[in-house]
Amino acid sequence: MSSLRVADSFLVANGKVRGLDLHRRRFTASCAAAGIDAGPYFDDQVKRLPGFGRWFPRFELDADGNLSVQLRPAPPQGGRIRVVVHDGPDPRTRPLVKGPDLGALGELKTQATKPFHADEVLLADPDGVVVEAAYSAVLWWEDDTLCIPPTDRPYLPSVTSELVRRIATAEGLEIAERPRTATDLADREVWLVNALHGIRPVEAWNHDPIDPLPFTRSKSWQRTLLASATPV
């Protein structure tokens, strides 16, 4: 069992962060549910983050109630990705809390993606409805509607997904919750989004590349998303 009770990570690029208030809210709310007031610690440690370079700090609450931060260099930003669909048991034990399942999801990603040289693994609920990826949220387009999995399904509330939905709202676009299987999404424009990479469009499923690739709006949306970063 993981020693992590709660965790939260975000990209710090030259002293700027996207959605820091949302990361703080998610982390401190999960810590509060575990009986820990993490707000003062979070705020103090954010002030200590470097103002230069690219970093990917992880705030943690361990099984003993200790708070800590791992200051990690940020990996390079990724682009288009290949995904594999997981068809075995769901390894998540607490899908609404980031932290306890990170180790199991990391192992699943390694095992599931290696045979396909894939970058991420997609998870579905018992009905086959796509809910999220191991380390990413899932968004897709149906015509001009930005779609997300139904919020009554078990998946982690994503800060980056929320930021993208705010962009859609500002653009006057419709946002809809729709239950879709991996087969339903195979010919859609699908994005995996997270705090490290922002928006990554899916270019291949399992062994099969998408041919032809659907038109993607991801480049312009990625620029808008990156521009939303503010100084810590």
SSE layout and pairing:
Blueprint: E1 4-9, E2 12-13, E3 16-17, H1 20-33, H2 39-47, E4 54-55, E5 58-62, E6 67-70, E7 81-85, H3 102-113, E8 120-124, E9 130-133, E10 137-142, E11 145-148, H4 159-170, E12 175-177, H5 182-185, E13 189-194, E14 198-205, E15 208-209, H6 218-227, E16 230-231
Parallel strand pairs: 7-8, 7-14, 11-12
Antiparallel strand pairs: 1-5, 2-4, 3-16, 5-6, 8-9, 10-11, 10-13, 13-14, 14-15
Q: Write down the overall mean pLDDT.
A: 93
Principal-axes shape call: globular
Strand content: 25-35%
SS-based class: alpha+beta
Written description of the protein model:
26% of the residues lie in helices and 28% in strands. The chain has 6 helices and 16 strands. The protein is of the alpha+beta class. It has 2 domains: 4-70, D-amino Acid Aminotransferase, Chain A, domain 1 (2-Layer Sandwich); 81-231, D-amino Acid Aminotransferase, subunit A, domain 2 (D-amino Acid Aminotransferase, Chain A, domain 2). The strands form 4 sheets. Strands 7, 8, 9, 10, 11, 12, 13, 14 and 15 form a 9-stranded mixed sheet that branches. The protein has a 3-stranded antiparallel sheet with strand order 1-5-6, covered by helices on one side. A two-stranded antiparallel ribbon has the order 2-4. The model has no long low-confidence stretch (mean pLDDT 93).
Summary keywords:
232 residues, 3-stranded antiparallel sheet, single chain, 9-stranded mixed sheet, 26% helix, 6 helices, alpha+beta
